Here is the input.
Amino acid sequence: MLGGRLLERPAYYRVTRWNDPGSVVVNAGWVQGLNKDAVVALYPAETRDPAQATPLAKGTVTRALPFEATLQLDNSLREEPARSCWVYVLEPNFGDQWVGFSIQLPDSHPVRLVLQQKLPEYKMIRLGEAPEAYLTAYGAGTQLIGAGDMLLTETDGNMPPDGAAKRILGQLKCYAGTKYFRKLEARGSHLNVDFEIVPIQINPNTLMETATIPLDSKRDALGNVHFQYGDVLKIRVTNRGNKAAYFTLLDIQPNHVINPLIPGDKETAAEFRIGPGQTVDVPKIFTIGPPAGVEVFKLIATEEPVDLRPMLCSNTTRGSSTLPTASLHVHSTTFIIDK
Here is the structure.
């Protein structure tokens, strides 16, 4: 896990435009997994646990832009209550990204029975199709294993079947979201922001940088970059476009967890702005740690500050093709973490 921790904040969005009693626009789009046919719910403001509340309306996405989605509501809402709502995602739509899933438990296993009942609600999980994650018995509990035999989550025998199924389905949902984020690509006509990883040495007492290390010294014969546990690095960002941009940096881990590195949990998206032609070193350092495997850093540049943290489970966004849009630019770097 690299820098930063998971954020304890309600993962909601807001209504930005009221079209009519049956249609509103929210401040999240396909970058947040709200492609066409995704389902959200609108709750009264300050609803911090939607599972324990009744929504004022549910909405289905009929049109999605990178950071904006139009909803068709199942219940008419006047403008004033609609604009005050907190909007939670019930069923994201990750486009063409889905997870093949195999249940390797006895037919009568109580967790299997609950999963089979609930799986139809999760369109991004396809039972038996090209499985890349599988559930197996582990003592009295279960283990969910992903690609490369990566342990994604486990349950013990004392956990009620409903609770175990909820944990497993939540992790599979995150798995699908991570696949979606790994393939997120966009090239803006006005935005062109990239970054480089700069390995550094630090004074262990002051934690201050003492020297930089050539990145090429970390490459193998095939050109792959390798880091070891304990390696320290910083991020250098360059704006090669003709407009100022705001940037977010996400760390997509081998175990399908997404950590927001920039901004951190006590920072705002508006703080990370870079002017045209500028190069800046982000004033923070990151230390490499578990898990081992292939890791991806993904920088997302936008014309306006956008906070992607609410939709991360620390995890969860769009599909496989490069999308032309003036308001979004994505740059990725992949490396390998060795033990």
Remarks:
- The longest helix spans residues 161-182.
- Confidence is low (pLDDT under 50) at residues 1-9, 314-326.
- The first strand starts at residue 13 and ends at 20.
